[in-house]
Amino acid sequence: MDGIPPVALDAMGGDNAPGEVVAGAVRAVRDLGVPVVLVGAPPALTEELDRHGAGSEIPIVRAEETIAMDEGALASLRRPRSSIAIACHLVRRGDACAVVSAGSTAGVVATAKLRLRAQPGVLRPAIAVPLPTRPHPTVLLDAGATADVKPETLVQFAQLGAAYAETALGVPAPRVGLLTIGGEPGKGNKLVKRAHELLDAAPGLDFTGNVEGHDLLNGVVDVIVTDGFTGNVALKTMEGSVRYAFGELRATLDGGRLARLGTLLQRGRLRELRRRLDPEAYGGAALLGLNGTVVIAHGSSRAGSVAAACALAATLARQGTVARVGERVTSSAQKQHRRW
Amino acid sequence: MDGIPPVALDAMGGDNAPGEVVAGAVRAVRDLGVPVVLVGAPPALTEELDRHGAGSEIPIVRAEETIAMDEGALASLRRPRSSIAIACHLVRRGDACAVVSAGSTAGVVATAKLRLRAQPGVLRPAIAVPLPTRPHPTVLLDAGATADVKPETLVQFAQLGAAYAETALGVPAPRVGLLTIGGEPGKGNKLVKRAHELLDAAPGLDFTGNVEGHDLLNGVVDVIVTDGFTGNVALKTMEGSVRYAFGELRATLDGGRLARLGTLLQRGRLRELRRRLDPEAYGGAALLGLNGTVVIAHGSSRAGSVAAACALAATLARQGTVARVGERVTSSAQKQHRRW
């Protein structure tokens, strides 16, 4: 891929690490043409690479420590030599174009904040997840980077999200909605009521007002802004509900002889649909607001999703998306400053 | 139904009022044997009743005012003669056993709080929604009554929800989970981190720890506790996601000739499944913590759901559920008091 440095892939992060992560790296390199460097414990990684006969294709950078899936933000402070910390270090030094990790979200976010630092004027980072709406994805942020926010932070998330939709998804003048519990400006908790007022007054944003939980997948706006707590609950609720609906559907389809016949006919199409709605297929979510490209893959990612996350990271790095997203926030902050 | 006073049905509340609400009242009375009194503007209601030839079967109590679907909590203070206020008044006087409304949630909650008052020791009311899990529903609360809460309020919601699961759903020793964004005690925002500590120490509760968005429909606990903002976002996200999954499914099924044949075979079963997952079919959600039974039906309710909500309200009133739920909170509050 036009001579950019490789993607630094945290080989120790994720429920299926290192096996599926290494398999994902092999796919990214061979099938997608994305250069990758694996960061982790060499013996295990060499063994996995050998399994694919890829020992000479993918370099390994040693990291002695690992942040486990059930560890939180504090672990990142205690482990300066963790695989995710080393991956961030490679990006800072310019030896990698981006970080990809399927590790614990709290651990990845805390480490990346510490090692890459926030872009100038950015209050808090946010995870931007593309939801499978049509004709293009709706960006939901924050999906879990920052659980406690101020109203001003939500305005910044709106700017980060709008810039991401423009730059990464090619949406001109993205419409921004605020996630809350009713259509009118006065509906919601104290946080969103104040954020609504600030968003109304924010320059350079096409703020269209409130959206609700049932608007996540109907494409009514291009960017949905919320705090990391609510966004994470909503995202996981969405995933669980789609899985539940298909589980119930399968139980129904198996129920009778006529139904079984029908199932037989439709098996291929149903499988295809299920894959499209599968959160792992999205590839990953970008962590916005830091000095470097970071893509967080689903904790349960398998090889295919790891490879997709590497491809997303390389594309974002090549387009300079993160830098352009940060510039937007910086220039908005300056404009705000002039107005006050 | 064994001589209880009638259910006071807010005939003016809901997207399809009064037509579908009156039709629901007729169904409740004729098909389900639930006595109902309609509260609203007589000319419109008489006309609707005549349409069903039910003018002599269902009494009307006059209410001059209405709280519109887009009005919030303040409207309830401004309109002491609204249909929902009069319905609450009937319950206070003992002339009705319960209130049912498909009106604006904020309006119904504010009016009911004002007219029926909180039970002794109850800090804030909560809406308890039964989610379609198996073998019995999981109770999610709060689904939108109280958007801003303190950690102590979440402990009370846990007690209200556990008492409701026991009394209304017959679940012995209900397991209670706290909705947040990670499995470990330290995951979440400030509110849930503190609530986790309090729930761990709360007497008489089987608190099993954190649950996440994808646990809403997997039946891992019997009661899911959250604030009214997060709960409402999660509930509407669930509804929207199920609707989306079935919409996508339908598009897939219509896609080819083989698929169309299969669809034909399965039409009856699919329709049945969709109905079961439809939020309107739940009937309604109980508002817990007030001196009186209040059931809030979905704003888009049609006749069937209105009738189901009336039946739920009558059953809760007959069982004395609300009083027993309140007693539990009162006795827990006393126990806590003794411990301090």
From TrEMBL, chains A, B:
As recorded in UniProt, its EC number(s) are 2.3.1.274
Enzyme category, top tier = transferase
Highest taxon, organism lineage: Bacteria
- The answer to keyword Acyltransferase applying to this record is yes
Q: Name one GO biological process term.
A: phospholipid biosynthetic process
Reply yes or no: does the keyword NAD apply. no
What keyword terms does UniProt attach to this protein? Acyltransferase, Cytoplasm, Lipid biosynthesis, Lipid metabolism, Phospholipid biosynthesis, Phospholipid metabolism, Transferase
- Catalytic reaction(s) noted: a fatty acyl-[ACP] + phosphate = an acyl phosphate + holo-[ACP]
Mention one GO molecular function.
phosphate:acyl-[acyl carrier protein] acyltransferase activity
Q: Name one GO cellular component term.
A: cytoplasm
Pathway per its UniProt entry is: Lipid metabolism; phospholipid metabolism
Localization recorded for this chain is: Cytoplasm
Subcellular location, principal: cytoplasm
Quaternary state and partners of this protein? Homodimer. Probably interacts with PlsY.
What does it do? Catalyzes the reversible formation of acyl-phosphate (acyl-PO(4)) from acyl-[acyl-carrier-protein] (acyl-ACP). This enzyme utilizes acyl-ACP as fatty acyl donor, but not acyl-CoA.
Protein's recorded name: Phosphate acyltransferase
Provenance organism = Sphaerisporangium rufum
